[in-house]
Specification:
This protein is mostly helical and 519 residues long. Helices cover 74% and strands 0% of the residues.
Length: 519
């Protein structure tokens, strides 16, 4: 890269301390929380939005996918944007534009207007999270950078949990446009506070050309993949010519993207980062682990609403306890990052996650709220030991001028993993539900003694003939959905345990500075 000839610390400023550091941390955490929250806050409100705009629920989901698609595409560009315009200007401008298009989303009177505003909202929010992490590390004292990562990671993991709760409450008590209007005061605080502290602490800027071909391949590849994932279930996957075309477009674009980015002088995605062992191991492990984490966060509340009979608000409350132990443990882990065996800490986290998910897989629709919430509460213990050590591992040895690129690339992998998890786990759940429904239905026939006896019991309560079959059909469907979701939970639980050996492929030392390669 053009700037590699300069010393990595040539444009570094003394770290902030005291009140300024605390104020900056609050501002960046607020902006990061706002950006991540917007990925999940709309989920439970899709029926209300669709009804208000006069479209189907499936069409309403484009308000979610358009945002995630745009954000995912922009995240790898964070490094180029930060170097070209400066990380501080990029961060504050991203917040201001995010606020503007949040207002447009709230004012939307049609689905195309909402989807278009969400698409642009995702584009301008893409660099926000990665630049936030880079700014935090750049301005924290070296000995406290573990705590900076802890605070940032806490926001990453807690915001998706709060999204369904806040979204459900706003939809039930206000109206769906307020899902977006609440970003205005939050964003205003974050932008004003960040600019007041950082306006004289801008990072080094370098004029670099944009990789137009790489950007085009990225947009086509990721866009086609997102379309495939969003519409695969409804269109019967590869039995649909449109899905086949999207799959081929994605495969061809990504296949050409990789060698192009590896050989271009100014790549839009710096794939050379993966040549570094710790970055490669940390990013890939986080990607797979976040796949499992997102899968549970999607399937669990969906099952509670469709099978157990919970409202959106109560389903969100059942999911929320995962954040309680994380809030307590993350600062402790952050302060002691340099003393921890990071590979052992990550292995412990995956064991906790696996145990919590296997526990959830033993529950059925008759379980109480406390029984649903307790495994989620336990899972929160693993969050701090999962994200903080792995993030430390992947950033070890990364120079200050490469932090935005490294963060953008790892966040891209994480975002795409979460998006893929949504489609994959719903597909698995549907298929396993169909299987269990077929198996259970085999036992409902006149020659089956159990069915004859149960039918007689229903008849004694006035439920006879077709009414008995309808009642049993509903019962079988609920049981099949529960057995299906338990199969998905078992798969995700084992996925965490399988990851443990891969964590140990990372190679110490894992410095908290993330800058030793530059000194």
């Amino acid at each position: 890269m053009a700037e590699s000839a300069q010393p990595a610390d040539a444009f570094e400023y003394p770290p902030l301390r005291g009140g300024k550091l605390l104020f900056l941390t609050a501002a960046i955490a607020t902006a990061s929380f706002m950006e991540i929250l917007d990925m999940t806050i709309v989920n439970v409100s899709v029926p209300a939005i669709a009804g208000s705009l006069g479209v189907s629920t499936s069409e309403g989901t484009w308000a979610i996918s358009s945002y995630m698609l745009a954000a995912a595409i922009m995240q790898p560009l964070t490094g180029w944007i930060g170097r070209r315009f400066g990380e501080v200007k990029t961060f504050v401008t991203s917040i201001l534009l995010f606020m503007c298009f949040s207002a447009v989303c709230g004012l939307a009177t049609s689905l195309p207007m909402l989807v278009g505003a969400r698409l642009i909202q995702g584009l301008v929010s893409g660099p926000m999270m990665s630049v936030a992490q880079a700014i935090l590390l750049r301005n924290y004292p070296i000995e406290r950078r573990g705590m900076a990562i802890a605070l940032w990671a806490m926001v990453i993991m807690i915001a998706p949990i709060c999204g369904p709760i806040i979204g459900g409450w706003i939809t039930d008590n206000l109206s769906w446009p307020w899902l977006f209007y609440i970003n205005l005061p939050v964003g205003a605080f974050a932008a004003v506070a960040s600019w007041s502290i950082l306006r004289h602490r801008e990072s080094k800027t370098v004029k670099l050309p944009i990789d137009v071909i790489g950007l085009a391949l990225l947009v086509i590849g990721v866009g086609s993949l997102q379309f495939l994932l969003d519409n695969g279930n409804e269109r019967d996957w590869f039995n649909s010519p449109i899905i086949v075309a999207a799959g081929l477009a994605s495969l061809i674009s990504i296949t050409f993207l990789i060698p192009w980015e590896l050989t271009d002088k100014h790549p839009v995605i710096d794939l050379h980062m993966f040549a570094r062992r710790n970055f490669r191991v940390g990013t890939l492990v986080i990607g797979v682990a976040y796949f499992a984490f997102s899968g549970v966060n999607v399937i669990f509340p969906l099952w509670l609403q469709t099978t157990v009979g919970y409202t959106a608000t109560w389903a969100g409350l059942a999911v929320a306890p995962v954040g309680l132990l994380a809030l307590v443990a993350a600062p402790i882990v952050g302060r002691n990052m340099n003393r921890l065996n990071l590979r052992l800490a990550s292995s412990f986290a995956f064991c906790v996650f696996g145990l919590a998910i296997f526990w959830t897989a033993t529950l059925n629709e008759t379980a109480s709220f406390a029984q649903f919430a307790t495994p989620r509460f336990l899972q929160g213990l693993g969050i701090a030991f999962f994200f903080l050590p792995l993030n430390q591992i992947l950033l070890s040895g990364i120079a200050p001028n490469e932090l935005a690129s490294a963060s953008g690339l790892s966040n891209f992998v994480r975002t795409m993993s979460g998006s893929i998890a949504t489609a994959t786990t719903v597909f698995m759940w549907n298929r396993r539900t169909d299987y269990h429904h077929a198996v259970l239905t085999e036992h409902v026939h006149n020659a089956a003694g159990a069915w004859t006896q149960y039918r007689a019991q229903l008849g004694s309560h006035g439920v006879t003939d077709s009414g008995a079959f309808q009642y049993v059909e509903q019962l079988i469907t609920r049981q099949a959905m529960t057995l299906g979701v338990n199969d998905v939970f078992h798969f995700l639980g084992w996925l965490y345990l399988v990851l443990i050996p891969f964590v140990w492929l990372a190679k110490p030392p894992f410095t908290a500075r993330g800058t030793d390669s530059a000194h």
